[in-house]
Amino acid sequence: MKTDVIIIGAGAAGLMCAMQAAQRGRAVVLLDHSKKLAEKIRISGGGNCNFTNLDVRPENFISSNPDFCRSALARYKPQDFIALLYKHNIAFHEKDLGQLFCDDGSEAIIAMLRGECDEAGAKRFMNCEIEEITYDAPKEEGAKGKFNVSTSRGEFTAASLVVATGGLSIPKTGATPFGYHVAEQFGIPIAKLRPGLVPLSVAPDDWKPYADLTGVSLDVTVSFGKQSFRENMLVTHRGLSGPAILQISSYWQHGQPLHIDLLPALDMAVQLDEQKGSKKLLSNYLTQWWPKSFAEAWCEQLPGIENLPLNQYNDKQRKLIAASIHDWQVTPSGTLGYTKAEVTCGGVDTRALSSKTMECNEVPGLYFIGEVVDVTGQLGGYNFQWAWASGHAAGQAV
Ligand code: FDA
């Protein structure tokens, strides 16, 4: 079949790109090997899809080329996507920190995008295995090349090919390294891949005191380098999770400790000074903020300091306890990997792409959008906003 645009991957970015391009009157074919449409949208945000964030800035994205995302994000804003939800009467609400979720399930977002694509005339082929991509380079300067895509559902040919196959996380949703392989085929570099927004593990021997405290949740500030996040942290059997840890995991580097402020709202040096005469045991005193089990386990681990009544500590010890509360250092042994990660950090090197259109500088007509690109959002709706914005940028250009 001859068409104007072939998009591989009918997830968030692919659907947005298909809709934009088809609305411009382009003949669009959308190919996906999955049986079901947009599985990651379906499972996102606990089933209610955190589809964007009211406060989107370039600083919310991680990339080896941090300015790359600016142009696309500036041209497709959260308000543009929100306008689509109003058009389709989809109810939504703001949770914390500007995060917008559907009221009645993420299926509404899938139905909306599918409806927009269908109405604009984009053709969709699901359950479609991609076998081979070949490229006929243009015969003369200024002419366009041609991409030929062989699939289990036939041959497709177009001057524009958009790769929107996402990252590696949660393989059971249909995630594959396909997009990275296409980049390699065309000589486009890949920024190192690693799981992001992922729980972290700690070596079993180091974690013994906390391994049985699964489910304990604390409001903390966790820092790594210049990044810090104040959110909840969850103790798990294997290490740490919860929003604060997922956020910092995208920045964390192997072998380095995380710095965790366990009581970020307080000045513990002052608090402990006020308790100089108290006969309360340190761990009991801390239970006004922490679950007893965590307070006891944490006090047992204090280096060179026993869990004693507060009036038995000297000034130096009180200072040390306060400093340890505000800077609990945990060195993870690793992450729980792509089966538990929400995203893949790294990806198609943005230096090879136009920030306005997502087209490859050296291969005219070839585009990469969404998570397959080396732009990764923080937790909070940013990854979908990148999928919408990069899909829109390419959809306007193909
Ligand atoms: P996406 O993964 O959506 O789509 C890729 C498509 O390509 C899929 O349909 C797949 O089947 C297809 N494909 C892959 N390989 C192929 C091949 N070889 N041949 C043909 N087709 C192929 N983000 C956010 O902003 N808010 C949230 O609430 C959440 N929640 C969330 C929860 C969970 C559990 C996960 C795993 C992830 C999130 N995310 C999120 C992240 C978000 O889902 C993700 O960043 C976007 O879906 C990326 O959109 P893409 O279109 O790039 O890839």
UniProtKB/TrEMBL annotation:
Pfam families, sorted = HI0933_like (PF03486), HI0933_like_1st (PF22780)
Stretches assigned to the RsdA/BaiN/AoA(So)-like insert domain: 194-343
The segment(s) forming the RsdA/BaiN/AoA(So)-like Rossmann fold-like domain are: 4-396
Which cofactors does this protein require? FAD
Keywords noted in UniProt: FAD, Flavoprotein
Q: Which InterPro entries match?
A: BaiN-like (IPR004792), BaiN-like_dom_sf (IPR023166), FAD/NAD-bd_sf (IPR036188), RsdA/BaiN/AoA(So)-like_dom (IPR055178), RsdA/BaiN/AoA(So)_Rossmann (IPR057661)
**Signal sequence annotation:** none
Q: What is this protein called?
A: NAD(P)/FAD-dependent oxidoreductase
